[in-house]
Every structure is written in C-alpha cells, then in structure tokens.
What we know:
Layout: H1 2-14, H2 33-42, E1 50-54, E2 57-64, E3 67-73, E4 80-85
Antiparallel strand pairs: 1-2, 2-3, 3-4
Amino acid sequence: MKAIAAALLACALSLPMAAPARADQPGADWISRERVAQILKEAGYGPIVSMEADDGHWEGKTTRDGKPIEFHVDPHTGKITKAEPDK
C-alpha cells in the first residue's frame, strides 16, 4: 500500500503546476492603441469595439460596412495582419 501511495505522490509532483493567469501586456516598443485606431480608420474600418495585447500582437474587434470584424495588428510595423468577419 505504501508503494502505491508513493507512486501516486511521485506522479502528482511530476505534473506541471498551473501558472496563474496573466493578461498579455503591450511591450515598451509597441505602437500605441491610438495609433492602431488611426491605422484601422485610414484602412476604412470603423471605430474599435475592443482591443488587447495578445500573443505578441494587438488583437480586437471593429466594423467595416456595418459588419463585425476581428483584427490583428503587428505592434511594431502597424501592419494589419488579420481582418476577417467576426463569427
């Protein structure tokens, strides 16, 4: 019985510990939220509905021609890397 308990304890200790959830933060060298809004406006998109730093880029929701759009913007170049209908 002690062998089973020891084996279970060893397995439990070898599992990765869950890290606390952390929101992504924009880097110090990223373009500003205001600049992203300007880039999207110049490209014909509506106002930003939501935006956050996620997985190394700006990500959010906007509109175009009254339809919801999900976007990604490169935080260094300002290039729109994704703009597709939001499902």
